């Protein structure tokens, strides 16, 4: 790319990064506002200088080859940086909508387990992981978290028909797209059995099956993060653990209930649920619902095995009492807007623009 416009869309930047094109992403937010970032970006705290009409520390930068994309919270301060850099001959553009818009960016990684193909669809900024699982041209989507058109396009490219959409639990950090995807495609919508959701769905109890192609997903109830949290085990070889078990930690127990004793009870339930997962064969692949860091455009599946995670995550080697006390002591700040997000997910409603509600770092994990 030899010339860029004053502004660049999330999709355009996403495509540049995915294609490996040279691009310099310059994050000009205040240091206090940088709790998540675009992979490969450079942060320079120029916010105060730019707001006062000065180029400040940006004037000292030497950029490597490639265009510069400036980024801030919603794009306004970055636009000032772009104007000043262009006045100095730098080929710069502003990311439209800033980090709020970037929360919708995504990339994929793929893998094959037995005769099943797995596409990991990753919201790079939010750390949300969703999955297309396909067998013999039939597919299931787990924890849909990006626009339904993304899944329908990926399915069409692979010649697959969607037969089921399922969530691992009622999410608190992002709006579920599962109901929308099921409505658009006519696929069956499954949810763990519970009384929270206010729209029709096919209910899954412990040991319930979802069969597709020559494969099956077995529902394993794993409460703790939420009361209905459920892990789905694919052909006894892969566990889609949602927000129960992550690659380097576990789910937080405090977002459902009123804290205090509710959180303590949920933490003990979480220990018991993880104990169920601990007993899976050691080579069972763990595919979680989130990661805590921005996701690189590297096409590498974010996964681990049961045997590995028992070694690498110290929480999983604690007894019940130590686990509960440690979890309660490490609970992070609550996700932004989580009460509104939960309410919308329970009602099955979706706003015209989800980015304002969803923007911000993922805070579902405790390590």
Write structural notes for this entry.
By secondary structure, the chain is of the alpha/beta class. The protein is built from 11 helices and 20 strands. A 7-stranded mixed β-sheet has the order 6-7-8-9-10-11-12, covered by helices on one side. A hairpin with a 2-residue loop joins strand 6 and strand 7. The chain is globular. The mean pLDDT is 94.
Write the layout of secondary structure elements.
Elements: E1 7-8, H1 10-18, E2 24-27, E3 42-43, H2 47-51, E4 68-71, H3 76-87, E5 92-95, H4 98-102, E6 106-113, E7 116-123, E8 128-135, E9 138-142, H5 148-157, E10 161-166, H6 178-185, E11 188-192, E12 202-204, E13 209-212, E14 215-221, E15 230-234, E16 238-242, E17 250-251, H7 261-278, E18 285-288, E19 304-305, H8 306-312, H9 320-329, H10 338-347, H11 355-358, E20 365-366
Parallel strand pairs: 1-5, 2-3, 2-4, 4-5, 9-10, 10-11, 11-12, 16-18
Antiparallel strand pairs: 6-7, 7-8, 8-9, 13-14, 14-15, 15-16, 17-20, 18-19
């Amino acid at each position: 790319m030899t010339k860029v416009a004053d502004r660049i869309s999330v999709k355009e930047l996403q495509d540049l990064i995915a294609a490996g094109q040279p691009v310099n992403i310059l994050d000009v937010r205040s240091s206090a506002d940088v709790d998540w970032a675009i992979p490969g970006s450079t942060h320079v705290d120029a916010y105060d200088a730019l707001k006062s009409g000065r180029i400040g520390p940006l004037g000292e930068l030497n950029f490597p080859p490639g265009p510069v994309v400036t980024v801030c919270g919603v794009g306004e301060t970055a636009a000032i940086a772009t104007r000043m850099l262009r006045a100095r001959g730098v080929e710069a553009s502003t990311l439209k909508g800033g980090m709020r818009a970037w929360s919708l960016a995504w990339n994929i990684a793929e893998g094959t387990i037995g005769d099943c193909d797995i596409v990991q669809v990753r919201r790079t900024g939010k750390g949300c992981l969703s999955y297309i699982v396909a067998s013999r041209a039939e597919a299931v989507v787990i924890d849909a978290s990006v626009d339904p058109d993304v899944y329908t396009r990926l399915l069409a490219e692979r010649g697959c028909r969607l037969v089921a959409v399922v969530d691992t639990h009622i999410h608190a950090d992002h709006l579920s797209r599962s109901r929308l995807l099921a409505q658009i495609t006519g696929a069956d919508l499954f949810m763990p059995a519970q009384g929270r959701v206010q729209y029709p769905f096919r209910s899954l109890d412990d040991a319930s099956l979802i069969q597709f192609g020559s494969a099956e997903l077995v529902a394993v109830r794993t409460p703790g993060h939420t009361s209905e949290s459920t892990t789905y085990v694919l052909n006894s070889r892969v566990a889609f653990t949602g927000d129960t078990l992550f690659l380097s930690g576990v789910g937080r127990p405090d977002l459902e209930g009123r804290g205090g004793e509710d959180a303590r009870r949920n933490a003990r339930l979480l220990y018991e649920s993880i104990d169920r997962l601990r007993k899976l064969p050691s080579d069972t692949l763990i595919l979680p619902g989130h990661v805590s860091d921005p996701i690189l455009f590297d096409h590498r599946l974010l996964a681990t095995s049961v045997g590995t995670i028992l070694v690498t995550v110290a929480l999983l080697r604690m007894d019940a009492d130590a686990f509960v006390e440690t979890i309660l002591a490490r609970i992070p700040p609550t996700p932004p807007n989580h009460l509104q997000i939960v309410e919308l997910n329970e009602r099955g409603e979706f706003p015209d623009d989800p980015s304002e509600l969803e923007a911000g770092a993922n805070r579902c994990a405790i390590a």
